Amino acid sequence: MAERLRNQASAYLRQHADNPVDWWPFGEEAFAEARRRNVPVFISVGYAACHWCHVMAHESFEDAATAQYLNEHFVSVKVDREERPDVDAVYMAATQALTGQGGWPMSVFTLPDGRTYYAGTYFPPRQLQGMPSFQQVLEAVSSAWRERPAEVEASAAQIAAHLASAQAGNRRLIGSLEVTPESGPLSGEVLEAAVGAVIEQVDPRFGGLGGAPKFPPSPLLRFLLVYGSTDRPAAGAAASVAGRTLETMARSGLYDQLEGGFARYTVDRAWAIPHFEKMLYDNAQLLRLYAHWSRSAPTEDQRQLALQVSADTAAWLAKRLRVEGGGFASSLDADTLVDGQRREGATYVWTAEELRTAVSGADADAVLSLLDLETGRMEDGGSTLHFGRSLEPEEELLWQRVRPALLAVRDRRPQPDRDDKVVAGWNGLAIAGLADTALALDDAGDPGEKAAVLLDLARDAAEYLLRVHYRNGLLSRVSHAGTASGIEGLLEDYAGAAEGLFALYAATGEEQWYRTAEELVLAAEQRFIMDGVLQDTAVRTDQLAAAQGSLSAADPMDGPAPSGTALFAGVLVTYAAYSGSSRHRALAEALLAHVQLVAARAPRAGGWAMSVLVQALEGPRELAVTGSDPVLVRQLLRAGRAAGGPAVVVASGPGGETSVPLLRDRPAPDGGALAYLCRGMVCNRPVSDPEELAAQFSALRS
Hints:
The strands form 6 sheets. Strands 8, 9, 12, 13, 14 and 15 form a 6-stranded antiparallel beta sheet that branches. Strands 1-3-2-4-5 form a 5-stranded mixed beta sheet, with helices on both faces. Strand 14 and strand 15 form a beta hairpin. Residues 179-183 have low confidence and may be disordered. By secondary structure, the chain is of the alpha+beta class. The protein is globular and about 80 Å long. Helix 5 crosses helix 7 (149-174).
């Protein structure tokens, strides 16, 4: 019945191709069919790695009777929230307005014009603890459509008006983009208050923020690390919170202690029991954060831990998520198919007996003593590999010794499915993470070839994006099997890809990455600013327009990944530093206006933008290194990265003709190298001594 889904780019949609439900992908054809039949539309939103999405699919969408009712009374639309975040955002807002909560799977019922009149999340096959069964919901919603059309229309109009009001709020948050340098300087006073608000949310026992469930607050951690690298008030406190959170996560069940990579979140306060799906957007951000922390952590043990986690997570990306051609897939599933049944986390959990068998010998008891199996125990009796504490040096050596044997056993188990779709913006974040991890390893004196391998992975992913996703100045959001399909990239895709390419240029000095990043920034400016209002999408469907009262604006608030607004502000600041463009600097400052309103009230929702504000307030510091002596160039770059922190903008090259304005008119002597430390294209005296460069950074900071 669901043949329309069989060749979709989304693995989530393809998972439903054999359902008896007559699914349609989201689009005008589905809504036209609803108008033709005069029936409402059922929109089911989820994603491939979602455990409860699989549960509802098995209970309801694979059930013949439920499917028959859906097919007779609705046009059913299946949406992958990762492929269509524009659809997900609109209907999630409607769901939250109606129920006070949201989540996936999301179940939304709309008129044939796209306006919502009822919504919820997971519905069980039978009435459960006051929750209606899915069949009861379907009957009630269908009955309302047939018998009480005036009530349905009134409800849809009210919800659309509510969403329009929320969009007006987003417009007020972002503010006017008609800002000039005369509008006044940026203020960072609110950032200290934001750090204070974060400290109030810290879990004093287990680290991280708040209680269960616990998510890695990646955009916020970026802010804390960037702010912590400055001499601003509360910088020490910010760095401390970031460091404790990063160390705690690295020693927990959230992190894959055998192979690297982080799960989406833990269901408990102690970080011990994860919801096992692994997402590219989480891991791309976290490997970069650990790379940055490896430079600033106060102890050698912490710096080595940070490097290990970053390097292992990069290796996990290459092993588990890399697709043919060099891009990175979206996720690994939470569930594993074992004997025909989906079991959450089955690949990853262990009993004590399984650990003894895998390790054997004298190490078995010692390994069991390292792990807190009780805190990590799941309902089926298995446990996650959760330490819950720092390891002593000899314990660390033991664990590194037994890891290969444990991983070999685990690799023989059934493995979770992978969602192979490639998302442009998330790949941009992965490129940045790989590039920065390569630099961190190289700067730490890694004796192997890990850094070179990671840079090659970053280049391959960048080339995949440009070859598959980028055509005639337009960026596609998703691809599958080497072919782009579906919608044009969102603001987060253009900005995320530019973020990755700028980072790859900074790591390699290869100017083609800078030139394409510049193209993406300029294209985003043209496509996503409409009548002075920033939008998340360049093209909006009639249904989404109707659903939110024909009013739209970009949502500047971060989720688990940074918002498109924050990413765009960041690449604008970086581009202005490279190019000297005061216009793009002013646009970035305009996009950061909402930080003044949200920083102290909701710091977790403004982390990436706050990190960009710190970068802007710091100048940002610009480092141009030119010369023909590769050893001295490398030494100067290492010194600059160490002294400049994560907010420094780096350009390097041989001098002479260049497409990077920061490098122009920065001559280097024959056979040597010079470093120019600048702010706003105004540079200090060039130096050739790494220690002198570090001293210039210190003087600039003070």
